[in-house]
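S.,

Sequence below, as promised.
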Amino acid sequence: MKSSNPIALFDSGVGGLTVTKEVMNEFPDEDVIHFGDTLHLPYGPRPQKEVRGFAFEIIDYLIEILNVKLIIIACNTATAAALKIAQDKFEVPIIGPVKPGAKAAIKKTKNQKIGVIATKGTISSKAYHKEIKLLSKEVEIFAKACPEFVTLVERGKVTGLEVEEVVEGYLASLREVGVDTLLLGCTHFPYLSQVIQKVIGPDVNLIYPGREMAIQAREILSALDDLNKQPKIGSRTFYVSDLDNISYDFVKVGREFLGLDELQFKELPIFDKPNLTQGIK
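The prediction came back faster than expected:
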């Protein structure tokens, strides 16, 4: 494997761009590929076996066709369903958000009450429960599945009265039990962080593991001596599995979030769809 090979991230949709932003900042001289499985979003309500199958197809394509040197699963549901098996199955390093997220939450909490919000799939898997309890037996965990958050983000709705009403409906119970730390267990949720903070309270720590994942990626590549050794400005390429299932409103939000002049997606035929050359801006 060449040290100049790209780093890849994938998510169930385009919400994982929150992690891609951190990776782009951490690796300005590395080529970075983002893939969003918009054909099958959302992953949250799907059975773990089905999600695992999607993840394995994506990982196999990224390794065999795009020759990536490290893969970040920028999706908590896919991480819960596939990470441990994928790490044994594939030779390329693969990481996910659960472990770094749990560590960061435990580090921040003072009253030992941690809230975890995520998709139904992630909550039902108890991935964060298990990881947090491995690190601390004293912490109380209050979990809440928030499936509508993903829908809002994919529609490009991240602020406004509608968003505040939905967030209030989900988070009121966590506010009442007094959590002092709230772990955003879905890569879509940081887009809603402004509203989430307003609803849950200004003194509650919001934890999102994107930054920790980027640092972990650097540590792994450094240990393997696989950091890019060719001085250059890294390329950024954005793919999806279904161009027709992207909200133009979200593209606008994503472009602003990433600080890019334009955000262009291309369709990648991982799931035997035709390869379209046009993108959307």
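Residues 274-281 have pLDDT under 50 and may be disordered.

Coffee later?
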